[in-house]
Design brief:
Helix content is 77%, strand content 0%. It is mainly alpha-helical and 297 residues long.
């Protein structure tokens, strides 16, 4: 525990965590709405432009870290949002995608074992197995039978996110807003030619987009990225990882329930069972990983 970290959560900390989970949970609706109202790649491009503009004052050359920042920007700011937005565009059952999106945690652990030589014991192996089994259950849900492409793209996005989490480990000490400023810049530069090539009409219509449509994209950029990630960084400065990580677990629950309510998709017994299994598996992986990380720190 660093000198600035406290042992117990205060009411203010709980409030910050609640806002963080709300922003991350509702972001799924904002992404789906922006994809439907604009188009997948153009919406992703506009989101990264907004992130850049919001975080622009924090844009700095970070000596010795630029290779990681540029790579992170290309993957997390470009490739990740291409796959996420395409998955949203081809799917109607957004709640199923919210559940499948939780594969990022077990993917991160697998990559840490392969590339960082991290040792994994039976509890985290069991957590990974549960998470994957829960997602597999979704494929057999009659309400999600037509969402296989969306689920596959979501799984790919989770893998990209996991790769990005390894890169971010090398950026410890770099200000969060600085990281997202570079992510917005590099992501926008990656998405610009891709969007012009595949969605020329949507890109040409950007000046005529209504404010309400831009509002959905702004909510995603400001709420999920700046407020959500900023809240996470704030909590990690005040508390240990094992204290903060459990506070993030309500966000997928909020996402599933909010998406089902907003888009009117039914939560079937199979989906609920799969979601519970996935969340239990993810909880085991994240909690045990946080505990292991502090023991080796």
């Amino acid at each position: 525990m660093t000198p600035n970290q406290q042992r117990g959560l205060t009411g203010y900390d709980v409030l910050i965590a609640a806002v963080m989970n709300l922003m991350w949970g509702l972001n799924l609706i904002a992404v789906k709405m922006s994809v439907d109202l604009v188009s997948p790649l153009t919406a992703a491009f506009l989101r990264q432009v907004m992130v850049l503009l919001i975080c622009l004052p924090a844009l700095r050359i970070i000596q010795g870290r630029m290779r990681e920042l540029i790579l992170l920007g290309a993957l997390a700011g470009g490739a990740f949002y291409i796959t996420v937005n395409l998955s949203m565009a081809v799917s109607t059952n957004v709640s199923a995608l919210a559940i499948a999106g939780q594969l990022g945690a077990p993917f991160s652990l697998i990559l840490a074992v392969i590339f960082l030589g991290e040792r994994v014991h039976r509890y985290r192996i069991a957590g990974m197995a549960l998470a994957f089994f829960g997602v597999v259950l979704l494929v057999f849900d009659p309400r999600a039978i037509d969402e296989q492409l969306g689920l596959a793209l979501t799984a790919l996005a989770s893998l990209i996110w996991a790769i990005c989490s390894l890169i971010q480990r090398r950026l410890v000490g770099v200000p969060v807003l600085g990281i997202y400023a570079w992510m917005g810049l590099v992501g926008a530069l990656v998405l610009l030619p891709v969007s012009i090539l595949f969605e020329p009409q949507s890109m040409a219509s950007i000046p005529n987009l209504p404010v309400s449509t831009l509002g959905w994209i702004l909510f995603s950029a400001l709420g999920s990225t700046v407020i959500g990630q900023g809240a996470m960084s704030f909590l990690l400065q005040r508390h240990t990882v094992s204290t903060v990580v459990p506070l993030t677990l309500p966000s997928p629950v909020i996402a599933v329930i909010a998406a089902a309510f907003w888009f009117g998709t039914a939560l079937t017994p199979v989906m609920i069972a799969g979601g519970v299994i996935v969340l239990v598996g993810v909880a085991i992986v994240t909690l045990r990983t946080a505990k292991a990380g502090e023991q080796t720190a």
